[in-house]
Each structure stands twice: as C-alpha cells, then as structure tokens.
Inverse folding.
C-alpha cells in the first residue's frame, strides 16, 4: 500500500530537549516536504527536498532542521524545541512533477511545555 | 509567495449543496487542488484541476475555476454528515513543487 508514515503520532516534551520526527515513504518519490498546521493559518511549509541531499527552506524554517540521506526518509529535527513549535506536523511526498498531487502522512501532534 | 484565502466556516443542512470558495493571487498558478481533512487524520486529495480547465466534475464534486478572477470553488452535491471536515484549497505555481494552502474551511453538516 502506498503510504507516508510519520512517527511518533503524538509527543509531549519539554523546552530544549532535542527531538526528531521521522517520515518515510514507499512510493519512490523524489519530492518530500514538511508542513505545520496551526488554527486559522492553514498549512505552512517548513522545509522541502527535491531529491537526495537536496533540501531547501520553506516559509517557516526557523528552529527546524532536516536531512535527506536516503530517498525514502526525510526526518524533521528540532534541536532545541520551544513552546511556539507546539503544532500539528505533516510530512508529504510526490513525484518531481508538480501535477502529481502530494501524499500526506497522518500527522504528528507535538506539544512543547 | 502566494496568498490563498478561504472562509473559515460553513454550515449546511444534510441533502443541500455545499459551496466552498477559494481565492488566490498568483495568476501563473498551474494546478489547483482540494484536500479534505477529517478529525485526527491527514490530508486526503479530493480532486484537482489544471489551470487550462474551467470545470471538472467527479461524482458529487464539481470544481469551478475562474482564472480571470483567480477564484476556485468546490461544490458538494447532496451533502452528507460524512462530508463534515476541513477542506483545504491548495495552489501550485508554475515551475515550483511547493503548494500554497489556504486556511481551510470547516464544513459542518447539520442532520
């Protein structure tokens, strides 16, 4: 089954404690992306990757890091999480061509205390 | 970037038609999508339309695109309680792989 898998689905942690949210896709997609969803703001892109070892900033990259060492994985790293990063996070993937719609994971709800 | 706007809430009675509207700013936008998000779930692609089309119909869903006014709408015929969800409009710009999302419209279907 074609899918994008995120882990964990839920996490409550404290300010400053490094965390990683993993994302994996099994569709051999070149393009992967991270979004955060906040009430009244829709989805905003954090980082994206056009292919292995190619990453770039989205609209709200501050406080986040990513890496793309393998095609299937695109982890999101919060080196020193802060409460304003409490949000719902989505990973998505697609073929390189834009008309191929993005497939989304089920989301990771992060609470930073 | 691109500004994509939607109204936040819409309530309709079961069996009526729902129309969710979206406006965008970049006239070079090539592909326009509608996603549905049910509680606790990710985004599910409902339908999409290319910018050279005016209308697309898929069962109960009709998408209308007015390129001149940069206005996109999603009509759901015979709305059911299972259609209650948040609906996101998303726009892809020419040459980019990045989607710009609206704020989402929360559709509530009243039995």
């Amino acid at each position: 089954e074609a899918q994008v898998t995120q882990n964990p689905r839920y996490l409550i942690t404290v300010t400053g404690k490094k965390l990683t949210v993993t994302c994996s896709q099994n569709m051999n997609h070149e393009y992967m992306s991270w979004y955060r969803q906040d009430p009244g703001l829709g989805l905003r892109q954090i980082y994206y990757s056009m292919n292995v070892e190619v990453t770039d900033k989205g609209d709200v990259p501050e406080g986040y890091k990513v890496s793309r060492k393998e095609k299937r994985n695109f982890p999101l790293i919060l080196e020193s999480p802060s409460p304003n990063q409490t949000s719902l996070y989505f990973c998505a993937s697609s073929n390189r061509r834009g008309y191929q719609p993005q497939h989304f994971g089920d989301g990771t709800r992060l609470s930073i205390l | 970037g691109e500004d994509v706007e939607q109204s936040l809430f819409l309530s309709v009675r079961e069996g009526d038609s729902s129309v969710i509207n979206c406006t965008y700013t970049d006239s070079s936008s090539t592909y326009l999508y509608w996603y549905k998000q049910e509680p606790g779930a990710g985004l599910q692609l409902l339908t999409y339309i290319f910018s050279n089309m005016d209308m697309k119909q898929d069962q109960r869903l009709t998408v209308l695109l007015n390129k001149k006014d940069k206005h996109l709408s999603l009509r759901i015929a015979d709305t059911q309680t299972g259609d209650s969800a948040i609906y996101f409009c998303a726009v892809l710009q020419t040459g980019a792989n990045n989607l710009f999302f609206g704020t989402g419209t929360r559709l509530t279907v009243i039995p």
User: Anything to note?
Assistant: Chain B has a mean pLDDT of 91. The longest strand of chain B covers residues 29-37. Chain B touches chain A through 27 residues (CB under 8 Å).
